[in-house]
Amino acid sequence: MPWLRAPMTRVFLVWLAVAAILLARSWSNIAERHFPDPDDILRLVQVRDLLAGQGWFDLHQYRIDPPAGTLMHWSRLVDLPLVLIIGALTPLVGSALAEQAALIVVPLLTLGAILFAIARTGSRYLDAREVTLACLCAGTSMLLLTQVQPMRIDHHGWQIFTVMLALTGLVPGRSLRGPALSGLALATGLSISLEVLPVAAAFGGVFALRWLSNPRERGALPAFLGVLALSTAALFVTTRGLGDLALHCDAITPPLMGLFGLAAAGAALAAWFNPQSRPLLIVMLGVPVLAGAGLYLGTSPQCLAGPFGNLDPMVREYWYLYVREGQPAWQADALVWVPPVVQGLVALAAIMWLALNRRGMERRWWIEYLLVAAVAFVSGLLVLRSMAFVGAVSAVPLGWLTARLLDTLNKVDGPLRKAGVAMVVTCLLVPAVPLVAVQRWIPQASGASDDGQEPDDACNLSEPVGFLNSLPPSTILAPLDLGPAVLEQTHHSVIATAHHRAVHAMRDDIAAFMADPEEAHRIVQAHRVKYVFLCTDMPEIGLRARTAPNGLAAKLVKGQAPDWLERVPLETSSEWQLWRVRTREAY
Q1: Could you tell me the domains of the chain?
Q2: Is the pLDDT of residue 446 over 90?
């Protein structure tokens, strides 16, 4: 059938296949409404608040650390597709089914957008077969698929799409449409999260190198930086407004926009002067960037340490260091980080081979692709969740490599030789397969998880907690990871969730569970807490109890509640505990 030969038709079929696999794997989570991460739960809470009438520019979560609430750094851009689907379907099927549809459709649409961008990028120099294989290779990246599985509605999938869309703009030649598209795509990614910043810097380096190697292409860098600066400013105004101009380190701020603006103005001025001396050109391009960086760091010196560099010491020690996805890749379990690292290294090797063996514009394109891929790879090594970028960026070179390996496999004679080559191909392209086989055959020395905590058996954070709605609206002291579920399923508030903007409330939440009962009581009273809610088998509670054996968490785990707490019976497993805070007169 001729229509099957069309490249986009093949991409659509790949998307259908991968989407079907993800649906099958996630079906129990969908049926049980089990979110992959607390961030997904809180994203839904934010969308509900918006649909209920909260202002577009008001990003507060008023039920985290009430009454003032907590200002979140999440972008309305990610809320928008969820709002559109839920808002459109609610009058037809009700809010519950509308939400469920959005939780399934939005991540899978994000996957489709990523595959489309991979195909568009690969079609520059790959044939239809290699493009199809590239999309299939994207489907072998577990960290990438994790970010686009059903129920995963946080922002990471959209970030990956913006990076891949920017790569479609990496077009050789003098046209300015490609650099402009890259600038727009990365401005969108930066408006969602600053995690895209290293890749944006890599694109700036690519277009600067174009200018240095060929003065006739000097328009690419000003076009990229100009669109990046203008789009970032426009998205800031349209999604955040002018009500919050504070100097945050985890989101776009006026000084950072100033950096982009100075870099763009400097590039435009250099293009106008068109200096023939390369050293002078480098100076003209570099000085505005350095001035912008000085402006940013001069006004926001705390941002030198990164978005999490200025956390309260207790929050850092007892929360952030246990957030594995935010730590360097090698600190995670080998089964998590080794496969994407191997895939990334194989992809980099393939790109280098192509860069050395191609000629003309194609050779330069692969060199530019190598620079972006290398920056993405280093970012992934330093922050594990950024390895999802590597899975997408690596798909194009891996598609080319897969085609070559399959051709080699077809030429090999004899079943044993074919099996050997097939095994090599599998190890190179899907390194998780041999690693899983090794772990299956070699017993683990311990059943403990990678943070030294026992596996979570009795406490399922997706277990319904709607029974709390029988109580009047109150502020609840709950573990950080349990807080989003309380917000999503009930009308109650919590002291804090595992979201760093509420750093002082997070410190109080951690301290309350680790402090002796009297100090914990003072914290509870300061936040006007009416109930304490927890599951004793939660890893978070286990950590608090082990760290502070005489603290409140340890006492509750042992069944030694202080006098100021009164047990509220629950029709659940005994590990789930709800305690009412007594008034002074009651005890």
Answers
A1: 2-34+73-398 (no CATH), 466-586 (3.40.50)
A2: no
